Amino acid sequence: MECPSFNALLQQSITEHWDLDALSDYGSQTFRYKDVARIIEKLHIILEASGVKKGDKVAICGRNTARWGIAFMATLSYGAVAVPILHEFHPEQIHDIVNHSDAKLLFVGDQVWPQLDIEKMPGLEGVFANSSDEYRILHGRTDKVTYARENLNRLFGEKFPMNFRARDLNYYNDSPDELAVLNYTSGTTSNSKGVMIPYRALWSNVQFAHEVYDAHVHPGENVVSILPTAHMYGMAFEFLYEMTRGVHVTFLGKTPSPTVMLRAFEELKPKVVIAVPLLIEKIVRKAIFPKINAPAIRLALMTPLLRDRVKMQIRRKMQKAFGDNFFEIIVGGAAMNQDIEIFLKGIGFNYTIGYGATECAPILCYAPWDKFVQGSCGKAAPRMEIRIDSPAPQHVPGEILARGMNVMLGYYKNEEATAATLKDGWYHTGDLGIMDVDGNVFIKGRSKNMLLGANGQNIYPEEIEDKLSSLPYVTECVVIQKGEQLYGLVYTDPDELRKGGISRNGLEAQMEVNRQELNKIIPAYARVQGLVLVPEEFEKTPKKSIKRFKYMDYPIEN
Fold first, then answer.
1. How, if at all, do strands 81-85 and 57-61 pair?
2. Residue 26 burial class via C-beta count within 10 angstroms: exposed 0-12, middle 13-18, buried 19 and up
3. Which CATH number applies to 20-197: 3.90.1580.10, 1.10.3470.10, 3.20.20.140, 3.40.50.12780?
4. Is residue 447 within 8 Å of 430, Cβ to Cβ?
5. Of 148, 80, 89, 93, whose CA–CA distance to 120 is shortest?
6. pTM for this structure?
7. In this structure, are strands 329-331 and 351-353 parallel, antiparallel, or unpaired?
8. Ranges in the chain, pLDDT < 70
9. Residue 172 CA neighbour count, 13 Å, CB half
10. Hey, how many other C-beta atoms are within 10 angstroms of the C-beta on 555?
């Protein structure tokens, strides 16, 4: 299939939506599409005067802000390669990524810069503040970089002496297999790798969103950006699609509390909501489940004449929580708890669960909410092909393989990892799953996480964790293996303990009850020997997946 230029799509959208609002920082400034275009041109001048060539790397690190998004679009439309870095990475990780990526310039947020050491990034020629004061220079190693910023307004005036207009836009004409983004994975199972995302993958993901949402999402309407834009999930579906559709994106900025998030939803009434399971689960568990468990509601749900009316009221409450204006909520980034999913499906809530990977920028599978099969993650996305590496794909889990336009070029400067992941044209996801006769994919777990039972049985810890997380006072959990025994590591929210008036001894007694209840509902070969309380929340990636590999050697006292 022909793949048009992604930058041409971006240029066309900015031109067509010139006077509409484009990017906002919540509670702060708003940039129209013409403002975005003007700043992009100024950044092009900085890049050119700083000696950045086509294909050079430009790193961007900071919280979600309008200026983060403008710096990203300026990098691509100039013809350089964007290196988005999650601001939640440890400073040493940021140093390593800047160095490994060969970045020449760094645009950095005010919160990140004080933690960094410029001497540990010797390849950088310049650092600019990704903040409200027009990208001030923080560090310049060459005269070119200093000159570029100090003379920016004069250079802009010389380039556009008759004022700057939409017809002046002339963005870099990219080709399908050209490197666009170097995105470092968030490291759920291992350390980060630099994923080489080509322009065809950016275009295909954005085109997918157009195919799914254009009938429901129109220019000038709102979308709230919650997820890290430096991660491909948030980047593709809370930012890039919107910029090519004329939509107004509002960044919530710092990690939002549920209160701030729900207030923003109510105020902005987004047309589509992109979320991770943790967000949905928190709202359901804290705002919905306590009300459902009230005796009157439980009785009504058991009464045929009242059941549908109560379900409708619960569904309306959920919809209002997210602004009451969205076509659907698309959930991705991690598995959703089965109890929560059964509940949402039971009330007819308009959500769907997709499946993706950084290596596919990110979409692999999707189904619209009204065709979505509970427990699945949809079917192969457009321009993608999915198969299960199993002798009986409908019944026996095998590795999920994918090929198509969304697949990466490989891992930057890591031929060994590339060869292990891209084989005969197929991307090996490392995830295990099955596929029904209609093409719906059901994920069973990560192949790296799979445990081997004493009698050779395959044990998928995610399936045990799903059941364990539904038991009392289990906020988060990870199942690990010690020898032939399985143990569950459990973190409990202190607020829940206070509400329940549970002491440490009482919590340990409850965990033993939980263990016994858990073992009644899982196979004998997967029974858990003990539940171990951990004192703090598990360390997570920015998309809120637990970094499992950090807990595999957690000490267990016998």
1. parallel
2. buried
3. 3.40.50.12780
4. yes
5. 93
6. 0.84
7. parallel
8. 1, 132, 186-191, 254-256, 452-457, 543, 558
9. 23
10. 6
